[in-house]
Amino acid sequence: FARELLAVRDVSRHFNHLIEGRETICFTDHKPLVASQFAKNPKWPAKYFRYFSEINERGIILRHISGKDNIPADFLSRIGLLRLNFHDWKQFK
Fold first, then answer.
1. pTM
2. Which of 34, 41, 59, 66 is such that its CA lies 20 to 30 A from the CA of 8?
3. CA 4 vs CA 28, 32, 39, 83: distances in Å
4. Membrane spanning segments where (predicted)?
């Protein structure tokens, strides 16, 4: 949860010049993160409140998308797997 939240916050800072003044939708496969964006009275550490506050101030809305439907992210998360499989395949030649 914390890493996903921090990633959204950091990306929003990095691309602020592109998203400033616009409603931006961030797709994630992390359902608890999406549900927590507008949670009432959560028991979080103070830093989570700061992260969500910054995300909300930038007009970012979190939306859920299943991992298999999020093709670019799914591909990026499997690059290491593809590399590993390629090396394994070479050993069997």
1. 0.69
2. 41
3. 9, 10, 17, 25
4. none
